[in-house]
Amino acid sequence: xxxxxxxxxxxxxxxxxxxxxxxxxxxxxxxxxxxxxxxxxxxxxxxxxxxxxxxxxxxxxxxxxxxxxxxxxxxxxxxxxxxxxxxxxxxxxxxxxxxxxxxxxxxxxxxxxxxxxxxxxxxxxxxxxxxxxxxxxxxxxxxxxxxxxxxxxxxxxxxxxxxxxxxxxxxxxxxxxxxxxxxxxxxxxxxxxxxxxxxxxxxxxxxxxxxxxxxxxxxxxxxxxxxxxxxxxxxxxxxxxxxxxxxxxxxxxxxxxxxxxxxxxxxxxxxxxxxxxxxxxxxxxxxxxxxxxxxxxxxxxxxxxxxxxxxxxxxxxxxxxxxxxxxxxxxxxxxxxxxxxxxxxx
Length: 346
Ligand code: NAD
Ligand code: TYD
Description:
Helix content is 44%, strand content 15%. By secondary structure, the protein is α/β, with parallel strands linked by helices. It has a domain at 2-183 and 219-245 and 287-307: NAD(P)-binding Rossmann-like Domain (Rossmann fold), CATH 3.40.50.720. Strands 3-2-1-4-5-6-10 form a seven-stranded parallel sheet, sandwiched between helices. The longest helix has 22 residues, at 92-113. The protein is globular, with a radius of gyration of 20 Å. The termini are far apart. It binds nicotinamide-adenine-dinucleotide and thymidine-5'-diphosphate.
């Protein structure tokens, strides 16, 4: 079972596993919220080793039924409410999906695998945001104490604690990964990089929060999928692994870099798109800096990122420019209402 397989990262994980492991039967469990879109996996959804189930992980009975129906042997859990700004507007969906939904899955796995725990894996996909916010120096390691500061990261931290609690209390075979910010194709255009690409393309204002000095550590989404593959198959049971690419950018430098890249790709005069940058009110409780030490993953499992940021960003921009139909499809009426509420009607 892969949960959240119609979302951004989940769709890349589903695609990778279906293609690389044709002997695995993959059940993709997804509620199809505003962020879930079957178009994300339309290239692989007709494969014989794939089945989609539209299920809300908050529905404990439905989850138990899926475990029984397919005799689920392993779980990679990505389904979540994932956008910090939305969590600030309304935390309860985050509590329900990220906390209650995760515990429902753990409970179903525990009931279904009892007596045979050693032959299964429950891999929970989490975020570096559970560690809180860094100052100028230092990196998050797996030993950094949890210090979540947004409703999103608090809900993910709670889910991580339940994952570890089920390992220690019931011996459930869990693995946990905490990754930095991802970028790449099929990223919902409410997040920084796809939102900026879309607005640059359409000459709309580029809303940079505060002074744009906050720092994020960006990883190519397919490298996250390859890390999940490595951890799921070879990571030690009960362990957590940080995933990241040592690739820190202030938001303003990243947006300027995207502007210059897109000026070149769109044939605009140098410096043209930068004029769209608009500093807007800062996010409440905005975490200053995230940065990941992924040396445990590299040393134990030999994982390293496969491509440079330069190459990944260029591929990402190309994908968005070539897939306007996808963007138009996912930015439905409901998304328009969210955008207007966040940024005004421009
Ligand atoms: P996303 O918002 O793009 O996709 C989430 C998916 O989960 C969607 O398909 C949605 O329909 C589904 N979903 C939401 N609520 C559900 C529910 N109640 N029941 C069933 N399905 C539900 O998110 P993403 O960016 O792909 O993130 C996937 C996972 O990776 C999340 O757990 C997130 O916390 C984690 N993560 C994300 C990043 C990042 O940069 N995006 C970084 C590290 C970790
Ligand atoms: P985001 O993509 O929402 O990821 P996260 O908050 O989980 O790191 O935001 C990345 C950074 O970009 C974060 O510091 C907030 C900032 N940001 C903006 O400046 N403007 C925007 O319109 C958005 C969506 C984000």
